Amino acid sequence: MDAIVMKNALQSVFRNPRYVVISILISVFTFFIFIFVNNFSTFVTAISLGASPTLLLAVTTNGAVNIFDASGAAMFTSIIVISILSGITISMIIYQLRVTGSLGGKKNLASFGGIFGGAFSSACSACSTTLASILGAAGGLAIFPLKGLEFSLPSIGILVASMYFISKGLMKSGKCKI
């Protein structure tokens, strides 16, 4: 029953090509932000030198490769999954807002917690210190044995749960045909 609710809600939302485009753009933007945050000093240097778009693309690509090399395939895959789920979740929230006129309350706001948690895990624990310093926990990430997956796995769970609650909200509002 629960998988059917999510499937029907996703079909209802993504039947409109506008939400497919929104989801893709948000996913790419989220992935770029994860790369940008973990390679902030490199981007700042490139921008201060008057970097061309080609150089910025090379910096982004090299940043992604560095994260893959430093963190491994599991972490890099989790970054991609979090980016995709973020795009899907936010486009579902936009759809819900347009159709029902409501954001859906605290349950939908939890998705932003999943995105923020995913940002902590977007690189190796040493590279994530830029973001972790916001909370004053820069050195604390280095002690985790799973190299940041401690943040990304719950983030994925939060994003999937948020998608479920959005789907349920759409079903209750009658905007999603079951």
Overall description:
This protein is mainly alpha-helical. Helix content is 76%, strand content 0%. The relative contact order is 0.18.
Offer a few descriptive terms:
single chain, 178 residues, mainly alpha, 8 helices, 0% strand
Oligomeric assembly? single chain
Number of separate strands: 0
Structural class: mainly alpha
Overall radius of gyration: 18 Å
- Measured between the Cα atoms of the first and last residue, the distance is 10 Å
Q: Quick one: overall form?
A: globular
Residue-averaged pLDDT: 75
Précis, in short:
With 178 residues, the protein is mainly alpha-helical. The protein is built from 8 helices and no strands.
